[in-house]
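Support request from a user on the community tier.

User writes: "When I paste my structure tokens into the form, the page sometimes reloads and wipes my input. The last time it worked, I copied everything first. Here is what I submitted, just in case something in the input itself triggers the reload:"
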């Protein structure tokens, strides 16, 4: 069979598996509206987990088929060069072209074990080019009529079959007042219009209408959050500021279920209301994690294309016993590498650490778990590493890091958005910001518990603070499902010798947890310790944890709103 024939077959196999993946992905995604309408929260979580498995399964199947078909020519670059050109022609006019190209890249990287980037065999775009969003992705509503009328039309168009019009009317005046006040803040007298993305965004127990208000001078977001309690669908919140909407699209949250035909236009629309949000995070937010990784990797490659004085450096904070963490100065990322050996008392393994990170990737993240992108075969110019940093990496992560001529190759790394370690934050901040973070520290632990996550070591250094002042968790080597823990009260000593003993006189199994000991290990300064306990004393009580376990075992799924109460309708104004 000729090279051209093999290339055509290669293209056909990859194309068919990509189309099959897209069909399956959208089929699961479309079920979200039904799940929301019938309050099938457990089923929606199962759909979320199943959808995450589609991509690696599709890549595996395509690779196996190609290996069987191409046999000894599976790594023939001439075949793949022609296949890439044919695939480019195939996807040129597709609205999801970028997703198709990423799928092709996933196959070639698997087949060739690519280190770094192979521009000859991969689709590489040095600078992203974003299309202008059009009426293909949004509906437009001129603000020539009264705001109440326009808002009512928006909700009826998007959710009319789901929602009782009376429930919309009940909050319509409040929503109109907020929007009119926001419009006055712009100082623009032109009426403008509201543009709402056509598909509804679903996640957890919420449904979201995502839009923007455009006037002659200004564009700002308009996001409505709907819930479906037992009494029927209602509008819970209205968000009109980028800071609040950014938290909804945070890298600490699971992806939306949203049926999108034009992903690039949709991302461009979202960038217009969230200019500070990286494109990689937005692609992940709409469920396309693999392309989000591709965009992130492109961002890293552009940043490290030429050497500068800003070398990588160790991240601030206490040294980790399991991971080495270093930062890319000027880039909002950290790189986490698994150490070759773990200090006492850590008893984990490399395989278990990797399994923990995979567990988090598949888990519902409730806005408290930082997304960790797993990368293989990263390659950087040696100039980015100072001698002390490189010596440390080779000495303590030599199974992962090695030198190839003037390149530093990292076989496995986790890239995360940078946050400030909580202990570092509290050592530099005082007053109301620090107090708010201390209180949110407890809220974060409770949100994780409601999501069936026990963080293990509840030390300050394992939590971080985002740029929005939210406390998140990022150290995953000790996490366990909350339902796997056995929460116990410390037994009372039976004798004086037991009371004075250095070691516990009672048996402690691996997953035993004693909540009354938590306050000893938090590491908060006395004023902050007192503040924490005044809001979260129940975290020190066994009954609290056992109660959460019982809820989870009984199928109760708590809703964790991705916005503060002040944005809820009927609550305090913005």
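"...and here is what came back when it finally went through:"
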């Amino acid at each position: 069979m000729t090279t051209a024939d093999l290339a055509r077959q290669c293209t056909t196999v990859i194309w068919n598996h990509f189309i099959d993946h897209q069909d399956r992905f959208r089929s699961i995604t479309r079920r979200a509206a039904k799940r929301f309408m019938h309050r099938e929260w457990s089923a929606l979580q199962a759909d979320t987990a199943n959808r995450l498995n589609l991509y690696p399964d599709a890549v595996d199947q395509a690779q196996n088929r190609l290996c069987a078909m191409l046999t000894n020519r599976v790594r023939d670059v001439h075949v793949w060069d022609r296949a890439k050109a044919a695939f480019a022609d195939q996807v040129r006019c597709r609205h999801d072209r970028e997703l198709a190209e990423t799928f092709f890249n996933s196959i070639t990287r698997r087949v060739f074990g690519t280190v770094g980037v192979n521009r000859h065999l991969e689709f590489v775009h040095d600078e992203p080019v974003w299309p202008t969003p059009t009426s293909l992705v949004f509906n437009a509503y001129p603000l020539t009529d009264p705001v109440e009328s326009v808002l009512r039309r928006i909700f009826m168009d998007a959710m009319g079959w789901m929602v009782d019009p009376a429930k919309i009317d009940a909050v319509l005046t409040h929503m109109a007042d907020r929007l009119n006040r926001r419009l006055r803040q712009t100082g623009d007298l032109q009426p403008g219009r509201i543009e709402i993305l056509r598909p509804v965004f679903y996640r957890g127990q919420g449904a979201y209408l995502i839009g923007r208000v455009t006037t002659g001078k200004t564009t700002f977001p308009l996001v409505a959050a709907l819930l479906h309690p037992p009494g029927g669908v209602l509008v819970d919140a209205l968000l009109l500021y980028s800071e609040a909407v950014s938290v909804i699209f945070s890298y600490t949250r699971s992806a939306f279920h949203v049926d999108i035909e034009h992903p690039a236009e949709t991302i461009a629309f979202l960038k217009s209301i969230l200019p500070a949000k990286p494109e990689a995070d937005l692609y992940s937010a709409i469920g396309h994690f693999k392309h989000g990784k591709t965009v992130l990797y492109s961002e890293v490659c552009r940043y490290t294309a030429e050497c500068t004085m800003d070398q990588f450096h160790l991240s601030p904070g206490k040294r980790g016993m399991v991971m080495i963490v270093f930062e890319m100065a000027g880039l909002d990322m950290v790189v986490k590498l698994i150490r070759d050996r773990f200090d006492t008392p850590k008893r984990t393994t490399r395989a278990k650490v990797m399994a923990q990170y995979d567990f988090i990737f598949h888990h519902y993240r409730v806005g408290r778990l930082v997304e960790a992108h797993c990368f293989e075969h990263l390659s950087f110019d040696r100039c980015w590493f100072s001698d002390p940093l490189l010596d440390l990496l080779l000495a303590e992560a030599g199974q992962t890091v090695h030198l190839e001529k003037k390149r530093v190759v990292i076989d496995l790394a986790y890239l995360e958005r940078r946050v400030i370690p909580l202990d570092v934050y509290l050592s530099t901040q005082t007053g109301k910001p620090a107090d708010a973070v201390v209180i949110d520290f407890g809220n974060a632990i409770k949100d994780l518990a409601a999501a069936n996550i026990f963080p293990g070591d509840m030390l300050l250094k394992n939590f971080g603070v985002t740029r929005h002042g939210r406390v998140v968790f990022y150290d995953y080597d000790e996490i366990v499902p909350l339902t796997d823990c056995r929460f116990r009260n410390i037994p009372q000593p039976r004798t004086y010798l037991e009371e004075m003993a250095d070691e516990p006189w009672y048996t402690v199994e691996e997953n035993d947890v004693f909540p009354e000991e938590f306050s000893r290990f938090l590491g908060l300064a006395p004023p902050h310790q007192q503040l924490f306990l005044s809001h979260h004393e129940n975290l020190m009580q066994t009954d609290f944890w056992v109660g959460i376990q019982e809820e989870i075992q009984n199928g109760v799924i708590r809703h964790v709103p991705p916005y503060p109460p002040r944005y809820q309708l009927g609550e305090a104004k913005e």
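Agent notes: The reload is a front-end session timeout and is unrelated to the input. The CA atoms of residues 300 and 331 lie 8 Å apart. The first strand starts at residue 138 and ends at 142. Escalated to web team.
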